[in-house]
Amino acid sequence: MSRGGLPALDALEVADPPDVWRRLGFVVAPDGACRIGDVTIQLVGKDAGKGILGWTLRAAAPLPEDLDGIPTRTVPAGQGEEPHAPPAPAHPNGATRVDHVVVSTPDLERTLAALGAAGLQVRRLREAGTADRPLRQAFLWAGDVLLEVAGDPAAHGPGPARLWGLVVVTPSLEDLPARTDRAVGSIREAVQVGRRITTVRREVGSSVPLAFMTPHLRA
Fold it and tell me: CA Rg, the chain, in Å?
């Protein structure tokens, strides 16, 4: 669902074999589609490359096919946000939605300008690095999914931005080891107050940094 007519994340194309995500407790359709909340993860196999290959954004008007190096498809935003895909299944791991997608960039200013021109607006900035390794995070909404764009604020590298990793929400982390064939690591406190997180072990075979996080606290 879009926020005030702004572009919304519709799908991600991921170069992982479907069986890896099934081991992680996701329901994956025969065509490799894994629906998590309002977002479809299209699993295209390791022969297609590595990591998150591109995204599809739902928008009122066509967007550039290249957003600072990120391959981009546009699907039209329907009148009144009509349903465009079947409801997400009940995943054995409990996943209910995609919480956020991490975008890595060698030129934060340039990437934010490209995303801004596409209608994605910076909501918050956070300094997350050290004096020796500065890191700034910018947060933008793409529908109900948060984009975390991260990079050295002083760097102006020539390379493209890339979709680096993602975090999904699940109500409980304690039973995830049993539901994911022991594919996740230890549980720790997340940066967001009151939330906890666990990451998928790299030896599982996913080419995407992937984590599970508990929901936002509600007052």
Answer: 17
Residue 122 CA to residue 112 CA, distance in Å, equals 8
Closest among 147, 99, 101 to 120, alpha carbons compared: 147
Nearest to 38 by CA among 142, 184, 176: 142
Count Cα atoms within 13 angstroms, Cβ side, for 153: 13
Please state the rounded mean pLDDT for residues 177-181.
89
Query: How far apart, in whole angstroms, are the C-alpha atoms of residue 201 and residue 187?
Result: 12
Burial class (CB in 10 A: 0-12, 13-18, 19+), 97: middle
| C-alpha to C-alpha distance for 92 and 67, rounded to whole angstroms | 34
Q: What does the pLDDT look like over 132-157, one tens digit per residue? A: 999 999 999 999 999 999 999 999 99
The pair phi, psi for residue 89, each rounded to 5°, is -75, 170
| Predicted TM-score of the model (pTM) | 0.92
Are the CB atoms for 170 and 93 separated by under 8 Å?
A: yes
Q: Which residue has the tokens 């004096």?
A: 131
Report the half-sphere exposure of 130 (CA within 13 A, side-chain side): 2
User: Which tokens belong to 50?
Assistant: 């590595």
The C-alpha angle 155, 158, 160, rounded to 5 degrees, equals: 100
Q: Containing H/E element for 67? A: strand 66-67
